[in-house]
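Next comes a single protein record:
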Amino acid sequence: MKFSLYVSILMWMMTSGSALAHGIQSDVSKAVTPAFDITTATATTDGRLTTFMMEVAGAAGSIKPVAIGQLTGAKVESYVWPTSLDPAVVGFDKGSGILALAITAHPDFDDTPLFDENGDGDPANDGADWHSHWVVLTETEACGAGLKVRDVSPGVDLLPATAPYLPIALDSPGMSPVLAGQVARITVPVAGAGDVAFDAVTAELQVNENGGVPLLCVTGVHDIASGDLSLPGRVTTDQ
């Protein structure tokens, strides 16, 4: 191999880390609030636990919704990893939509009744603290960004054992997210996740102002790591 060709290949490898590592790199945008402007997203697994990470241009988790004092119309900020995993993997109906892992904050309601995130002895007042969910997303023209958390009928549709029994496909598994510096990260127990496709999104959601359906809409997207929600990332296996 000619030396010049070797150098060219080496330089390509050095500048194409996101493709080789199966992560996603995204350019900084002046149009996106830095706390939600994704620059990098990765996911790794040891075969038992899977860790999803995204790095943003600003301070991850530094911006939360303003409380309005009621559930209807309440806003939700989120760091989300849509995946190619079937929703049945975590206990939802098979083939029912896009299974996504989310880190969310919403000061007007608490949807993690089994967990006391702020450690004050009351498990029902923690919505404003960043916490984790599995959600199933489906397309709809009724929501501003074209996606909603799937509406369900508890007792009819399959829900995981740790779901808060809301009429949406949402689970509250209790894994604690880490938001530090520019990084948002969460580790979840998902076996056999190697090579699963994923993307990274920062978005705002809102509870229906009338309490009807769709109950929880994706109303605005801050950033999509891939640019087109094509799920180009792949979960890599720790060596």
Notes: Residues 22-237 form one domain. The first helix runs from residue 3 to 15. Residues 1-20 have pLDDT under 50 and may be disordered. The first strand starts at residue 24 and ends at 25.
